[in-house]
Amino acid sequence: MSLQIGAHVSLADAVTQARELRADVVQVFLSDPQAWKVPPLEYPGGAEAFRAATAEAGLDVFVHAPYVINVASPNNRIRIPSRKLLQQIMAGAGEIGAKGVVVHGGHVTAKDDPATGFDNWRKAIDSLETDVPVLIENTAGGDHSMARRLDRIEQLWAAVQQADGAEVGFTLDTCHAWAGGLDLSTVVADLRAITGRIDLVHANDSRDTAGSGADRHTNFGAGTIPPELLLGVIREAGAPVVCETKGDVGTDIAWLRESL
Question: What are the Cα distances from residue 227, in Å, to 140, 180, 203?
């Protein structure tokens, strides 16, 4: 089985890191993931040079949007800046030739109707001007999350399908699914039944137990996900794979290739 397998790397050093890791695909941030501002691209020669270098290296590139983005929020002070920041990231992703932008599903608060969050997602997708797909990622924790459990993902998907803006796809994170209480033996089929597609897999072991709600990635074999279950998800999804594990990611990529 030949899948594109790679890792999250630093944008400034993406090609060199990919070569060292023997990665076919990379994921990058365009800005500080905890900040609301997008600085000029930290790459000599800018977006055009980055695009040329990754194309020459045969690398597909995905962008991960900042963690602060929560387009579902009913709070204007969070939702409006989130939409503005997401548009900036989508524009930047287009300039570097990214295949998609991964965005966390976000959440509402305990006092909010989840339907408001789903509709806010629809409005956010409607307002985007981009040719790059938005890849909504399932999340690990929170009782008021938009994309932790299958019933919420189904409602979210129904809402974004009503939008006329950007193309919407899906990123399946194995650690988030495990910690979020999803059944890894059926999760690919369950998600495909809802979305019809899985565009990217974030392949991560989980430090914590199934259903814990804890978003703590760890290296393959060092966590609590049975290896065959993890490999089964990746095989069945058949999508490009990005490892977001810690430390020696090269060993994780090599183990995945060998095991698959």
Answer: 19, 18, 11
Question: Minimal CA–CA distance to 5: which of 173, 253, 178, 260?
Answer: 253
DSSP for 68-130, please give it.
T--TT-S-HHHHHHHHHHHHHHHHHHHHHT-S-EEEE--B--TTS-HHHHHHHHHHHHHH---
The whole domain housing 32 covers: 5-174+187-221+241-246
Count of domains in the chain?
Answer: 1
Tokens of 192: 């495909």
- Indicate whether 251 belongs to any domain: no
- Per DSSP bridges, beta strands 241-243 and 200-203 are parallel
Q: Phi then psi for 77, rounded to 5 degrees? A: -75, -15
> What distance in Å separates the CA atoms of residue 92 and residue 98, rounded to the nearest whole number?
9
Q: Is 229 inside any structural domain?
A: no
DSSP secondary structure letters along 21-74: HT-SEEEE-SS-TT-S--PSP-STTHHHHHHHHHHHTT-EEEEEPPTT--TT-S
Domain membership flag for residue 129:
yes
User: Residue type for 35, please?
Assistant: A
- CA 106 to CA 66: how far, in whole Å? 12
Residues 138-192 have pLDDT tens digits of 999 989 999 999 999 999 999 999 999 899 999 999 999 999 999 999 999 999 9
Task: Please report, for the domain that includes residue 112, its CATH number.
Answer: 3.20.20.150
